[in-house]
Amino acid sequence: MTDIHVCTIPDEVKAALRKFRFRKAKNCAAIIMKIDVKSMEVEIEDEMEDCTIAEVAEELPEFNPRFVAYSYCHDHGDGRISYPLCFIYYCPSGVKPETNMIYAGSKPSVLAATDITKVFEMRDAEDMTEEWLKTKLGFFG
């Protein structure tokens, strides 16, 4: 079976994702990516530092999909702190079918470039809360 690549991921985007993945900062951070439908390339729309998942959600457009790489700082309450990396495919309701197909078809390539294993989908940015994220990651309490 042949891999289908709907869009390309420029080297500078891959480098930024690699740098993000291996960052040493001790806070939450995000990279929001979009696809330029004219060039069919993934581009970084925004990079956020020291941000909550709700603040990231506020930056997402109402009617256009986005890919989000998010580094979450989780305090386990027993002295341990972990920094799980999450990939969120945000595709709100009402997106044009063509746009949806471009993003859905590009998701595997973007996911491979991030090398993140915790993958979630989100339809409504308002539901993107810390409680939602903790549930998805399996953290309770």
From TrEMBL:
- Gene Ontology annotations for the cellular component aspect, listed alphabetically: cortical actin cytoskeleton; nucleus
Matches recorded under InterPro entries:
ADF-H, ADF-H/Gelsolin-like_dom_sf, GMF
Which Pfam families did the record assign? Cofilin_ADF
The protein's UniProt keywords, in alphabetical order, are: Cytoplasm, Nucleus
SUPFAM superfamilies to which the protein is assigned, alphabetical: Actin depolymerizing proteins
CDD domains listed in its UniProt record: ADF_GMF-beta_like (cd11283)
The protein's GO terms of the molecular function aspect are:
actin binding; Arp2/3 complex binding
Family per record: Belongs to the actin-binding proteins ADF family. GMF subfamily.
Q: What is this protein called?
A: ADF-H domain-containing protein
Q: Which organism is it from?
A: Monosiga brevicollis
